[in-house]
Task: inverse folding
């Protein structure tokens, strides 16, 4: 969990990155950009707004041989060790980005490298490095007055409403390549930003494993529970799964299976499915981990809890009260109509 409300930009270096393959140049500044209170507020909102509304999925620097060979990791360590060196190191970061800017789709733009203080990560105060890039320019009008007329002048500039690319490197978990968040509004060149420039991989923390395990359960429900049982049991399995994650601080697989699978025959099916599909979700060897509440909340929004019938009727389950569906919904078969039915018990209709 991050909190950027009290974060301040202590230093800001500004450079321009061209497309090297098109013969565009790299331009680096020899001094940091001054920020008065008004400009600080505007730039802070421009840089950090996309991260405040972003579902937290952390990355970390990754190198196949050793992190010590990772350029950006070395630059980040040097800045954290000596923040006053940000300007000089930011020029090396700009050069590194310029060397990756060779694909014809990559747009030239401004690179901002800043040192951030008072950043909250997992309820701990730390500092961070922000690396942001603006690419898309927008037309806007300026107006000039003379003695007789008001003249329109068409200009181009960067809109502060939408950041094109950005990354925040938090000064935590250095031994694992730091914790990093990234945004990219222009998905046509995602490999260039995440892989070629940042050189990151997914950070495997409780947020990662909670999300991956719940997604794995969702696919198991669709591929195994639904064919073996019915739609109600598919929804109920996910209902019980989400509630197991919501009420526990840590995940333990045996307890989870005993609590969520009513049919004991499905337990070996679950284990076989995990052997087959687990590597896809990076959970093949995972049976215990701390649970991330924010990941559970995010996953709950994306899991369907509705039974849709071919008679244009829908039955919606309640994930916060899973026992209700178990107690008050029954499925049966009507011989006369040759149709399935659901029988729903209730005391009164709720008025909303």
Result:
């Amino acid at each position: 969990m991050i909190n950027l409300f009290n974060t301040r930009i202590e230093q800001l270096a500004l450079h321009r990155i061209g497309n090297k393959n098109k013969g565009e140049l790299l331009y680096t500044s020899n001094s940091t950009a001054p920020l008065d209170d008004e400009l600080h507020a505007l730039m802070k909102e421009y840089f950090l707004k996309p991260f405040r509304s972003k579902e937290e999925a952390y990355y970390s620097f990754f190198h196949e041989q050793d992190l010590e060979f990772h350029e950006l990791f070395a630059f980040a360590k040097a800045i954290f060790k000596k923040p006053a060196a940000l300007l000089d190191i930011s020029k090396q970061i700009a050069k590194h980005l310029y060397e990756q800017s060779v694909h014809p789709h990559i747009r030239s733009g401004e690179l901002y490298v800043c040192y951030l203080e008072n950043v909250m990560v997992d309820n701990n105060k730390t500092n961070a490095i922000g690396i942001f890039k603006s690419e898309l320019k927008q037309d806007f009008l300026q107006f000039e007055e003379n003695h007789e007329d008001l003249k329109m002048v068409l200009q181009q500039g960067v809109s502060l409403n939408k950041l094109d690319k950005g990354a925040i490197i938090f000064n935590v978990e250095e031994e694992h390549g730091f914790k990093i968040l990234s945004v990219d509004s222009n998905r046509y060149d995602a490999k260039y930003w995440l892989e070629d420039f940042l050189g990151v991989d997914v950070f495997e923390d409780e947020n990662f494993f909670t999300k991956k395990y719940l997604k794995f359960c969702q696919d198991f429900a669709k591929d195994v529970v639904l064919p073996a049982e019915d739609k109600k049991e598919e929804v109920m399995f996910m209902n019980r799964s989400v509630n197991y994650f919501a009420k526990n601080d840590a995940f333990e697989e045996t307890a989870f299976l005993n609590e969520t699978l009513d049919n004991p025959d499905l337990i070996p099916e679950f284990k076989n499915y995990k052997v087959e599909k687990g590597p896809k979700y990076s959970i093949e060897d995972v049976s215990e981990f701390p649970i991330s509440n924010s990941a559970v909340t995010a996953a709950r929004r994306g899991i369907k809890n509705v039974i849709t019938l071919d008679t244009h009727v829908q039955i919606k389950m309640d994930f916060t009260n899973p026992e209700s569906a178990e107690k008050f919904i029954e499925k049966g078969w009507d011989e006369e109509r040759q149709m399935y039915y659901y029988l729903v018990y209730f005391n009164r209709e709720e008025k909303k």
Summary: The CA atoms of residues 63 and 70 lie 6 Å apart. The mean pLDDT is 88. The chain has two domains: 2-144+151-203, 207-344.
